[in-house]
Design goal:
The complex is a heterodimer of chains A (322) and B (324). Chain A is 31% helix and 22% strand. With 322 residues, chain A is an alpha/beta fold. In chain A, a hairpin with a 5-residue loop joins strand 11 and strand 12. Chain B folds into 2 domains: 217 residues, P-loop containing nucleotide triphosphate hydrolases (Rossmann fold), CATH 3.40.50; 94 residues, no CATH class. The chains are: A alpha/beta (322), B alpha/beta (324).
Chain lengths: 322, 324
């Protein structure tokens, strides 16, 4: 296998916060990401799923160096990611780009979209102005827009078109990795399919790798070569999407999959979890999931399970997984 | 089938946008029987929420409403404010997408529930407090009496939505309109809330109108679904029919655009183009420019809803020839 494009090794991000009323406050640690490791090969997609607050977005920001790591290491093309803001980091940012959830918020409303697509070329001082324009026009075409969209403003475009602009801007530097944080959640169902198909086509043409973050398990299965399920800052299950969703091994994955409302469901019983996910400040001892887990045993309260390989090549962090 | 509980006939909504008047709803017909669960699906701007906001007189004076909303022998369209207030909350209750912005952040949960109980059922003091605790318990909030003293920010999103449901139940309504009640919530919490709505319906014979963009949510929680597009109901059918034999190309398109969780992965069939803007609708059928079965006749006039079999209507000229 070729050299991995991206390696995340034991990523940790803690926040020190103060709790309680001002006079009697004490320090507490919020464990946003607590030991996340994965590798991503060129041209492949890793889907990251989990509920809000599980650390998906924090992981994405750590990978890009947009947040400093508390511990762990990110390697891009085999090179340790340098400190954010350093010259080398800026150079490496050409290789990795981010696509955000809300395209309207990610674009500047007062600048024509074509200018915004050219902006990364200006920042990295690539090409003469005329060449930049040609490059931007070519990228607009690649994402399914036309030349006349170049001079439009964000408010003149539909939601799907705006997300295409955000994609074009990310792609204009010919990156190898695109970190997509809920890239289709803000779009209507009929438009989601258009954008997902576009992402798959672009991957096939340009050999892009995606870190695809979403809470929509069906869309994640559609685009991913591998899926990682996060719960309270840790990966609890990782593996092939078809197998993982067809027969989830971790009880949390099982609950997540069974929670999806389905039109034509094979009479599968729904597993309804009690309560809300715990606060990442008060992560339960042992397995973080044990308080909501229907099959927890005494060991789960005492000992934190590590992510380990199981029979079919998938990785599961559960004492009871075979 | 008896007399419907609520009968919406030819409901239209025009918004006065200063320069022009924009029609958002183009004659919606929707009858709901007592105890029935009906889903309304469609993309943003299709008119699913506007239908109910108009029916309950909640759109403000910039909106001009036409048609009829018949409920218990009277027409709610143009009814005096006092009469509408007696219906809203008490007989027809509504919960919306974002629970945290629907609750007042500076009042305790108990006070807000108490206000609803006083308004709808004239309860005060200890009786209201006891009833508020009973309602919180009913929606699955543990330790209800203590929770009454909490502020909304002390509860999670799922818990706040439970409080909203408790408040909606406070008037013992005959119809609950739930507008995207779980869109802002996580998957496992969404499952809890939908389960709760089902449970309440089993116990109280209340009718449920579930507005959602998610066909899966509607499929699991209602008996019948109305698909809306650009301010019209384009198909109205029992759940099983919608999935097995959709008659309108838009419904088929929506189904093909959804990925599966099981079976082989296939390329999604996206519906080309975008939803037309309400002030710029194409002639004839609004879906015509995006429709794979388009022909010239589609542009001639707006296709009326045709009853294909009993209980299955579709507004498409092709539906007649039995594409279902």
């Amino acid at each position: 296998m070729s050299e991995p494009l991206l390696q995340a090794d034991g990523l940790v991000r803690y926040y020190q916060i103060r709790r309680g009323s001002r006079l009697f406050s004490h320090r507490a640690t919020l464990r946003a990401v607590d030991g996340v490791s994965f590798t991503l090969q060129p041209g492949r997609t890793l889907g990251l799923v989990g509920e809000s607050g599980c650390g998906k977005t924090t992981t994405a920001r750590l990978v890009l160096g947009l947040l400093p790591l508390t511990d762990g290491e990110v390697r891009l093309q085999g090179e340790t990611l340098p400190k954010a803001g350093s010259v080398r980091w800026r150079e490496l940012r050409r290789v990795m780009q981010m696509v955000y959830q809300d395209p309207l918020a990610a674009l500047d409303r007062r600048i024509a979209v074509g200018q915004q697509v050219m902006e990364p070329l200006v920042i990295h001082a690539i090409g003469a102005p005329a060449e930049r324009r040609d490059k931007a026009l070519a990228i607009l075409q690649a994402v399914g827009l036309q030349a006349h969209h170049f001079d439009r403003y964000p408010h003149e475009l539909s939601g799907g078109q705006r997300q295409r602009i955000v994609l074009a801007r990310a792609l204009v530097l010919s990156p190898r990795l695109l970190v997509c944080d809920e890239p289709i959640s803000a779009l209507d169902v009929s438009i989601q399919a258009q954008v997902v198909n576009l992402l798959l086509d672009l991957q096939a043409q340009m050999g892009l790798a995606y870190l695809f973050i979403s809470h929509d398990l069906r869309m994640v299965r559609q685009v991913s070569h591998e899926v990682a399920v996060m719960y309270l800052g840790r990966i609890v299950e990782r593996g092939d999407p078809d197998r993982l969703f067809a027969s989830p091994a971790h009880p949390y994955t099982r609950a997540l999959v069974s929670a999806i409302p389905a039109a034509h469901r094979s009479a599968r019983q729904r597993l309804i979890l009690k309560g809300d996910p715990p606060n990442p400040i008060d992560v339960p001892t042992g397995c973080a999931f044990h308080e909501r887990c229907p099959i927890a045993v005494a060991r789960c309260r005492a000992e934190t399970p590590v992510l380990r390989p199981v029979a079919d090549g998938r990785h599961v962090a559960c004492h009871l997984a075979a | 089938m008896g007399e419907p509980l609520i009968d919406i006939r030819g409901l239209t909504v025009d918004f006065d946008a200063g320069q022009r008047v924009v029609r958002a709803l183009h004659g919606v017909d929707l009858a709901i029987q007592g105890g029935e669960a009906v889903g309304l699906v469609g993309e943003s701007g299709s008119g699913k929420s506007v239908t109910w906001l108009a029916a309950l007189g909640l759109l403000g004076n910039r909106a001009r409403i036409g048609g009829e909303v018949l409920f218990e022998g009277r027409n709610l369209v143009g009814a005096p404010a006092g009469e509408l207030e007696a219906v809203r909350g008490a007989q027809i209750a509504m919960i919306v997408q974002d629970p945290s912005s629907s609750l007042n952040p500076v009042y305790r949960i108990g006070q807000q529930l108490g206000e609803a109980l006083q308004l709808h059922r004239g309860m005060n003091g200890a009786a209201a407090l006891a009833e508020a605790a009973r309602l919180l318990d009913r929606v699955g909030i543990a330790d209800a009496t203590r929770r009454l003293r909490d502020y909304p920010h002390e509860l999670s999103g799922g818990m706040n939505q439970r409080v909203m449901i408790a408040m909606a139940l406070s008037g013992q309504p005959q119809i609950l309109v739930a507008d995207e009640p779980t869109t802002a919530l996580d998957a496992t919490i969404q499952a809890q809330i939908l389960e709760l709505l089902q449970e309440i319906r089993r116990d109280s014979a209340m009718a449920l109108v579930l507005i959602s963009h998610d066909l899966g949510v509607v499929a699991e929680n209602t008996d019948r679904v109305c698909v809306m597009y650009a301010g019209r109901i384009v198909e109205d059918a029992p759940i099983a029919t919608i999935f097995e034999a959709p008659a309108h190309p838009y419904t088929s398109g929506l189904l093909a655009a959804l990925p599966d969780l099981e079976g082989p992965r296939r390329r999604l069939l996206a519906i080309p183009g975008v939803v037309p803007e309400p002030w710029n609708l194409p002639p004839g059928c609004s879906f015509a420019p995006r429709c794979p079965e388009f022909e010239r006749a589609c542009e001639a006039s707006v296709p009326p809803a045709i009853e294909l079999v009993h209980g299955h209507r579709a507004a498409c000229i092709h539906a007649r020839s039995g594409t279902a």
